[in-house]
Structures are given as structure tokens and as C-alpha cells.
Amino acid sequence: MQDQDFIIVNDVKRYYKIGDEIVHALDGVSLKIPSGQFVALLGPSGSGKSTLLNMIGGLDTPNEGHITISGQDLSEASDKVLSSYRNSSVGFVFQAFNLLPSYTAQENVAVPLIFSRMGKKERLERAKDALEAVHMPHRMTHRPNELSGGERQRVSIARALVVNPKIIIADEPTGSLDTKTGNHIMDLLQELNEKKHITLVIATHDLSVAQRVQRIIRLTDGKIVEDYMNDNNQTVGAK
Known about the structure:
Blueprint: E1 7-18, E2 21-33, E3 38-42, H1 49-56, E4 64-69, E5 72-73, H2 79-89, E6 90-94, H3 105-110, H4 120-133, H5 149-161, E7 167-171, H6 179-196, E8 199-204, H7 207-210, E9 215-220, E10 223-229, E11 234-235
């Protein structure tokens, strides 16, 4: 059963001062994402999508408004609480992969578990299971420079999976890949969403990528300008 109030963003504002100018990265954003939904934040560079993604991932906090995940308000949470949330509830996937070059694929996937009390043997076993989930068990002992771009992104997704997250956030997960490889990565993310019922939120500037997900939220200048379910284009919250 879906939790309809799993992610709640309530009138969130995030601004930065650059010299004498105040830049509004997010300007009064409100939305709700039920558990298990696959959502794309769509918009050009500077639209606010990555800032919103970082808020949901506990990497940043708003100047005004509230971010609530599964009943936990992250808006004024301490660094310790945010760190615990990131380590136990969220998996991160980045455009640049962010893999450690001297580590094998298995060792890279196990990195998030270092912050737990789990022993090394169990960490590596969990990493093996995560690599199998992304169809990469045959590449466990390879280092990033021995992998293709698509394989590196699969390792990155396995690293996100290894903590058994409630949410995976992905910032331009296909941005460094060619179209065919990017489609394979989107196939994998859809598979994980359907089989493991993980809530997935991705940021992208590419409409063809956004059209692969259940719901599209389009941002412009820090505001939501369109919000619709992709299966029938039914608007659910346009502003």
C-alpha cells in the first residue's frame, strides 16, 4: 500500500546571496510524492531541480518551508540527524558516477556501509547482492577504468541500493551516456522501481528521459510550472 504522504515539500524556498544579488533557487515549491512512485524533475540548468533533489536527499535544507520524509521533518534537523537519514534511507546516483578509482566495483558498492557497524565480510556480501540486482556480478573485481560508462553507472546504482534505501535520488543519471546506454540505465531504474517498490526521484533536462517515468514535475526559475502523471497526461498539480 502506498503512503500518499511519503515525501511532503511545503512552500520551500532556497536562496543564495551572490555579491549584492539574491538568487532564488527554489521559490515557494510545494508537492507530495507517495511511496513507490517514479518521478522526474524536468527543467533546464538553473531551474531548481537539482536543489530540490538535494533537499529530498538531505544534502541541503531550505531557508523557508518544510521537507518531511515519512513523517520526519528534515528542514531544521541537526547535522547528525541528516547524516543518519542519508546513510540509512537514501541512495544517491550521480551523473559523474563518483566511483573511487583504486577500488573494485564490489568495494565501491560497499563504501556506504562503512559508516554502519557492519563487518567487512558482510559489507562485501551485501555489495555482491547489490551488483547482482543491477546485472553486474561478472564485473565485481574490475576497477572503474576497466568498465564502460554504462557499467560504471550500474555500479553507482548498486552503491545506492546497498543500504536498502526507501528513496533513490538520481541527478542526470543518463547525462554522461549515449542514448542507447542511457535507455538501458532507465530500463534498470524502472525495473528496480517495479520490483523493489523504491521511490525514485530523478533530475533531468531531457524530455525523452522524463517520459520514461510515472510522473513529470517541470520546474522553471525555481517554481513548479507543470505536474502531471505520464500515463494519461492528467494534470495533478499545475501551478
